[in-house]
Amino acid sequence: MTVTIYDVAREAGVSMATVSRVVNNNPNVKPQTRKKVFEAIERLGYRPNAVARGLASKKTTTVGVVIPDISNAIFAEVARGIEDIANMYHYNIILCNADKKKDKEIRVINTLLEKQVDGLLFMGGAVTDEHLQAFKTANVPIVLCATTDEQGLIPSVDIDHEAAAYDAVQALLKQGHTRIAMISGTLQDPSIGFARFQGYKRALESAGITYDENLVRIGNYRYESGSEAMKYFLDLSDRPSAVFSATDEMAIGAIHQIQDSGLKVPQDVSIISVDNSRMASMVRPQLTAVAQPMYDIGAVSMRLLTKLMKKETVDHAKVVLPHEIVTRQSVSAI
């Protein structure tokens, strides 16, 4: 049978109110009494009822996190940052995978809100009108993590994706490359996919290079699409000397396709990407990449959410973290 607070009180020879104060770390309990209650809790195997406590305090000390792809190392790093700060502020995490599907994202958001979470972190993916409508029905704070909404209505933490892409292409231009291809993510994602595409175009324009749609292929952020895009580029009569990939995973697919074709990176084709996941230093040659501070994005997002949940003053509801280029061996001068 379930052990109740009444059972603990009877075992310890104290009132239920005293047990409640001990469980909730109230300082107004004598050390000897506190020790006696904890001994009774241990003997009986009592676990406080979090649901009941939440109903009484109207707080569950639980935060819902919507993650787009739990198998992606990038999002795992963000989740680590979220969890570390959540633990620091004594919040529990409910992590839900949404498989980058809008319908599932909306369903997961509503499910988490029904679970009476104290706050919600929405990670990655395009924020559509349907998302905004779901957010409007929430009576708890929401922070966008590693993404933003176009109107800037929801507090968010991210990098400047257009600037990151611009800097990546600039790095190739400085090495003398002028025929630069791009393996892009979906352009239907304004905050990440389209933003990185715009950064690519802007860098070319700044160098006086005419945009060529034949040098852009749309991928799905995964390895296979990077490999397929690179095969297309290699089959061109005038193949590119360098490729900018919107993600490390697609870049690695491109590197392997180049190598499978009997060519070398960077001697025949230079490759640069955005992410700087652990895979970037595992592939050979090691991948030059624009580093997103993924752990920091998660940590800062969770800290921002704690401030909103506690109704503390927030100076900046839209936080843009810096990025940097990590130079390795996949880019060389032409």
From TrEMBL:
Q: What protein name applies here?
A: Catabolite control protein A
CDD domains in the record, alphabetically?
HTH_LacI, PBP1_CcpA
Q: Which InterPro entries match?
A: CcpA, HTH_LacI, LacI/GalR-like_sensor, Lambda_DNA-bd_dom_sf, Peripla_BP_I
> What role is this protein assigned?
Global transcriptional regulator of carbon catabolite repression (CCR) and carbon catabolite activation (CCA), which ensures optimal energy usage under diverse conditions.
Q: Which UniProt keywords apply?
A: Activator, DNA-binding, Repressor, Transcription, Transcription regulation
Under NCBIfam families, the record lists: ccpA (TIGR01481)
* The species this protein was found in: Paenibacillus phyllosphaerae
Q: Name one Pfam family in it.
A: LacI
Q: Which Gene3D superfamilies match?
A: 3.40.50.2300, lambda repressor-like DNA-binding domains (1.10.260.40)
Q: Which SMART domains match?
A: HTH_LACI
Query: Which molecular function GO terms apply here?
Result: DNA-binding transcription factor activity; transcription cis-regulatory region binding
Q: Has UniProt tagged this entry with the keyword Transport?
A: no
Domain HTH lacI-type stretches: 3-57
